[in-house]
Every structure is written in C-alpha cells, then in structure tokens.
Amino acid sequence: MALLAGTLLAGCSSQGPQEKLEKAAEDASSAVRSSRLAFGLLDEGRTTRAQVKSVLIDMTTELSTAGKTVLETPSAQEAGGPATRDDVLRAVQAAGLAVAAGRDCVETESGCGPASDRLRAADEQLKTVQDRLAGGS
Amino acid sequence: MKAVLAVALGILTAIGGFLDIGDIVTNSVVGSRFGLSLAWVVVVGIGGICIFAQMSGRVAAVNGRATFEIIRERLGPRMAVANLSASFLINLMTVIAEVGGVALALQLASSVTYLAWVPVAAFAAFIVVWRVKFSILENVTGFLGLTLIVFAVAVFMLSPDWGELGQQVLQTQALQSESMSTYWYFAIALFGAAMTPYEVFFFSSGAVEEGWTSKELAQSRLSVLVGFPLGGLLSIAIAAGAAIVLRPEEIVVTSLSQVALPVAAAGGKLALAILIVGVVAATFGATLETVLSSGYTLAQFFGWSWGKFRRPVDAARFHLVMIGCLLVALGVLFTGVDPVQVTEMSVVFAAVALPLTYLPILIVANDPDYMGRYVNGTVMNAFAFLYLVIIVVASVAAIPLMIITGAGQ
C-alpha cells in the first residue's frame, strides 16, 4: 500500500515551478526558524546540547531536501525565470551552511554567537526571497 | 479497596498507554499548521475508539476468546482474510513507526543517530515480549507513559492567550495559507491516529491474556471511558503546545526533535527530560502492543496457540510472527526511510483500513449466539452505526486526498 501511495504521489504531483519554489523556501524558512528557536532555548539554559544537535541534524536534512527541490525545478518564466530560481537556491544554500555552522559550534561546545548571526541572516535572506515569490505569483 | 485500585490502575495505564508515535507526531504537525482548528477530530476519534474498544473487550470477556477467533468463525474465512490482511499490514507499518519512534526519542536524549538505536529498540522489544509477563509490560509502560502529562503542564506554563486558543478550536476550517483539501487530509490522519486498529486487537486479546470474565466488564468499561478521553486531552495538549510556540514562528513540524521544542520552552531541561522518558515509554509500549497485536491477529486467524500466558515453546508460531515483524521493522528502518514519514503514512492507511477492522466487531457484538444478554443495546448500536458511516467516509476519502494534497504538502 505504501509503495502504491508513493507511486501515485510521485506520478500525480501537480505543483508548478512557482509552487515548488515557494514550498522549498517555506520549508527552508521553517527549518531555519526551528534552528533559531533551539539556539535561543540553549542560550537561556532551557534545553540540552543533545536536543539542539538533534534539531540541527533534522533541519539539515530538511534543507537538503529543499535545495534538491529547487535544483530540480525548471526555470519557467511564470516563476520569474532562472534568476528567481537561483536566488531561492542561494538562500536555501546559505540556510544550509548556517545550520551546519550551528552544528559545528554545538559539537565543539564553542561560542555560538557567530552561528546565531548567520542563522538570523539566512532567515532574512529567505524572507526576502519569499516576499519576491509572493509578489510574482 | 482492591477493586478500586484495579480500576485506578486500569485508567492510569489507559491514559499512559493511549499516546503513541502516531498521536504525538500527527497532533504536533497539525498544531503547527492548523492551530487547534482540528481539535474536534480528536474528540470524534476518541468517541469512536471508546465505543469499539469496549465492544471488543466485551466480546472477549463474554466469550473468553479474542476478536479474530470469533470473526473467522462468525463471518467465514473470506471476510476474515480481508480483515486480517488490512489489519496485519497496518499493524506492521505501525510497528515500523513505533520502533523508529523509540530510536528517535533516544537520539533526542543522546544525540547519537537514531539508526544506532533502531537495533537496540528492536532487541529490547524482543526480550520484553519473550520474557516479561503481560501485566508487567502493560502496566510499566502505561505508568511511565503518564509522564507525557508534561505536554499538558507545558501548555499552562506557556501562559497562552486562552481566548485565542478557544477561537482556534471553534474555527473548524483551514486557517490562512492552508487549503481545505489539506485540512481534511489531516482531519483523516488525526482520526486514523486516534482510532488505530491495533488498540482494539490489543485490548481484546489482553482481555483474554488477563482472563477477564463478564464480571470485569464494568472495570474495563471504566478504563476505556475515562482513560482514553484523558489520553485524548493529552493529544490536544500536544497540538496546543505546537500552536502556541511553533505556529506563530511559521515552523512546520517535520521531526520529533521539533515536537520537544514547546515543552523545553515551557519547562526547561527538567520538562525535556520528563518528556523524553514519556516518549520512550509511550513508543516502546506501543511497539510491544503492535508486535503482540501482529502475533495475535495471525495466530487467532489460523487457530494457532497464542498468548503471553503460555510459555513461548507452547506458542512457537505466535512468537515467530512477532520476531519476523521486528526483523521487517529493522530492515525497513535501515533503508534510511524517515520514521516520521512512515508514521504519517501509517495513520492515513489506518483510516483506510478502519471499516475492515471495525465492521466485523460490530457484527459479532450484535450476535446473540455469541453475546447472550451482553449483546449491543439500541443506543450503543445507534452510536456504532453513526461511527461506521464516519469511518467509511474517512476511508473512501483518504487516498484521493492523499493524492490531491501530495500527502499533506
């Protein structure tokens, strides 16, 4: 049944390039905000490094899926052409690098200030891209 | 006094044993995306599981035989094999999801990858199913699962705007960017999570394991009618926590690690530690229940010797089925499939299979030859038929909605 569902879902995906880019940016934004929330809780001493590391590992997977989706999306004109797709990809990749930097600092138990700053910047970059996508749709 | 303690124990283990990985993940995903606008589905689902669980418990207590034995005898092998196939496959999917859930919870505690915990969880389940007495495995995991009350405590500690939460409960439609088809897809997923078939098989077979007779009917009814709704309140608390902390940040839950964030935000490291104990207990308890249910369904259908009350050597095929299920779970999880996605799929497919599971129970509970004076009354039948209609509608709509929404994307 699961195989059947997977086949059906793969075969019947009806999202266009615009929707795919929007969804990838939304997923990436959710991943970055989860990471920021986890970092915030760690700063306040309300959670453990193990929990934050788990969040960051999961969000890395989420961001790599989002990046793959963007790469596989054709550069259709209705989705703003190749420039828009490239901007989304850059934002998602920046988010992935920020989360990876967060993981490094949690693992090495070093100061996480720079990683937090990168996450904030990645969040803003994704917001800009999302606004542009929303304006274009 | 002994009877009161037995009732209290039954209720407490019913609350602690109610939540599993399906409830935890689905309620958290729904809370982060839809707020509390789908809380009504949990209430409807709890009503359904209460009706059918107490019905199957009554069938087992009155006859001294579990549901599948009677279904095959009463409805014949053809109808019973449809029931068996649907129930067994859904059960197997749930075993995979629960073993994955234990591993993910242990990853949260240790930061060691969940793949390293998968064999540990499966082996521990095998040892417990093989060696530990039924009453102990049921009560210990149920009691430890009670620590999931931390979800409800967290909601109060977050000091939410209760008026806003109340408005979400009353807003029974999709919020903002979500489409109606996605709203209904998740409604069916929540319904499937609340009415997972294994709970009924475990309840019914457990009645035989513990040697219930018609004298224990009142006690079992109380356990179900009080314990399950309180367990349902915990489901709503999970969604509420996600609605309060994650939704305003536009965070959509895709992993178990995110489920823990609202609890940590509310109660810090202590609450997080309690939560991890609860999630491990709940998912491990559900692993045991689903593994046992796999053995129960197959053994009862084929008329093999079954039950924890027998020595493993006297119920060899029953135990082999359970070992086989754990090995399948191990194999599937080692492919790297995301346990959370398996969970999300399993609750939707559970909804698809619900009519095949619950219709036979209703037929048997209405047969005076089996039930004597304990046959279903008019009021019970009215509710049961109403639920059967809901179950059929959910079952028919589940796959089309899954395709339309891309599994809720």
Note down, in words, how this protein is organized:
The complex is a heterodimer of chains A (137) and B (409). With 137 residues, chain A is mainly α. Helix content of chain A is 82%, strand content 0%. Chain A is built from five helices and no strands. The longest helix of chain A is centred in the C-terminal third of the chain and has 28 residues, at 81-108. The termini of chain A are far apart. The mean pLDDT of chain A is 85. Chain B has helices at 2-18, 21-34, 39-63, 67-110, 114-131, 134-145, 150-157, 162-170, 180-194, 197-209, 217-245, 256-259, 261-302, 316-334, 339-365, 368-371, 378-405. In chain B, helix 2 packs parallel to helix 11. The relative contact order of chain B is 0.22. The interface between A and B is medium-sized, with 34 and 36 residues.
Compile the SSE list and pairings:
The complex is a heterodimer of chains A (about 140) and B (about 400).
Chain A: H1 2-11, H2 17-43, H3 49-72, H4 81-108, H5 113-136
Helix pairs in contact in A: 2-3, 2-4, 2-5, 3-4, 4-5
Chain B: H1 2-18, H2 21-34, H3 39-63, H4 67-110, H5 114-131, H6 134-145, H7 150-157, H8 162-170, H9 180-194, H10 197-209, H11 217-245, H12 256-259, H13 261-302, H14 316-334, H15 339-365, H16 368-371, H17 378-405
Helix pairs in contact in B: 1-6, 1-11, 2-9, 2-11, 2-15, 3-9, 3-10, 3-11, 3-15, 4-5, 4-10, 4-13, 4-14, 4-15, 5-13, 5-14, 6-13, 7-11, 7-13, 9-15, 9-17, 10-13, 11-13, 13-14, 15-17
